[in-house]
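If I may wish for something, please walk me through the protein I am sending here so I can picture the backbone:
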Amino acid sequence: MYTPSDSMGKVNLLLDLAAQRQRALGSNIANIDTPGYRRKDIEFGQYLGHMNSPLETELSIKLGPSAVIESIGATDIDAAYELAEMQKNSLIYTIATRRMSNIVTEMKTVINVGK
């Protein structure tokens, strides 16, 4: 059964993950010339896999395993790749904020109809 609070929790998790990933990607760019620095990233897969929607399941399959990961052996960071990943992450964040806005609008509608 659909509940707005459950949906809000899922969107909240996605917003938190996107914010953490943005920090990791920003750290990669900030440390591009730091000797011995290893690239860090966050994958959404495992977190999204716990949600019960076909879209979320499909995303988890495409995005792969989760957690903060460090590239093994890769010490060179490609600025163009990091910026492209930041742009992708920004799109995910935008989608999540729009969804949260829709949830709030739905709740307002229910409250106003109940008056």
